[in-house]
Recover the amino acids of this structure.
């Protein structure tokens, strides 16, 4: 039961070592920085310190209650990162797979539209690019929960 | 009058020119606060020119424009979120 915000990269294997011990099912999702066909060198992510941690803890607690999770974890990076690097991860542990899968999707849908992070492109020559616009489909995805 | 910290993130921060400012306000709601802020100068006016593109948090909770700000310590303005 942990939410963490950090600038440094994380190691998925290390994050999952021992995670969900005793559960029947563990699901993890990792988001990676896209290079958008070579156009981008990476991303820079700004966030709202304080509100971010509160929001992630709240989403985790909601997911745990709704899907009967035995454990959950969210790690999200901020600051500059290079294409191909991990941006964030969620992991869920439950007695059975369906709850673990659904809880991971629930966390991702909430995190994308309701956690105070903002992505900005870093274009291939290293100059700051535009702020990434929110997608309607990400907002719409919340409707199914 | 209430003393508030107003925070800006992403392109709102860039348009206003500062990440945070402490203000004295008589506003009762976020909407009234936006009206006061937008009247300060052209940079604030630019930041608040399209409120459909602005989200609000009162004391770190997402809030509607008509939310009261009585007793609040900080109000943040930012674009729709793009985490994940």
């Amino acid at each position: 039961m942990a939410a963490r915000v950090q600038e440094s990269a994380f190691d998925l294997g290390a994050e999952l070592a021992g995670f969900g011990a005793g559960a029947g099912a563990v699901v993890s999702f990792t988001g990676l920085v896209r290079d958008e066909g070579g156009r981008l060198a990476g991303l820079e992510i700004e966030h709202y310190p304080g509100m971010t941690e509160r929001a992630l803890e709240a989403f985790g607690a909601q997911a745990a209650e709704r899907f009967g999770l035995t454990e959950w974890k969210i790690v999200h990076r901020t600051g500059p990162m290079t294409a191909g690097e991990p941006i964030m991860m969620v992991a869920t542990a439950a007695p059975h797979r369906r709850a673990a899968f659904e809880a991971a999707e629930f966390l991702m849908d909430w995190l994308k539209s309701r956690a105070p992070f903002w992505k900005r492109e870093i274009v291939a020559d290293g100059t700051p690019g535009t702020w990434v616009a929110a997608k309607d489909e990400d907002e719409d995805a919340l409707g199914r929960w | 009058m209430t003393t508030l910290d107003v925070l800006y993130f992403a392109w709102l921060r860039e348009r206003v020119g500062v990440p945070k400012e402490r203000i004295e306000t008589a506003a009762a709601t976020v909407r009234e606060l936006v009206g006061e802020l937008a009247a300060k100068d052209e940079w604030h006016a630019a930041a608040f020119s399209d409120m459909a593109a602005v989200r609000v948090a009162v004391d770190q909770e997402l809030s509607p424009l008509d939310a009261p700000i009585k007793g609040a310590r900080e109000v943040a303005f930012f674009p729709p979120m793009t985490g994940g």
About this structure: Chain B is about 25% helix and 30% strand. Strands of chain B lie at 2-8, 20-25, 55-58, 61-63, 74-78. The domain at 2-78 of chain B is CATH 3.10.20.30 (Ubiquitin-like (UB roll)).
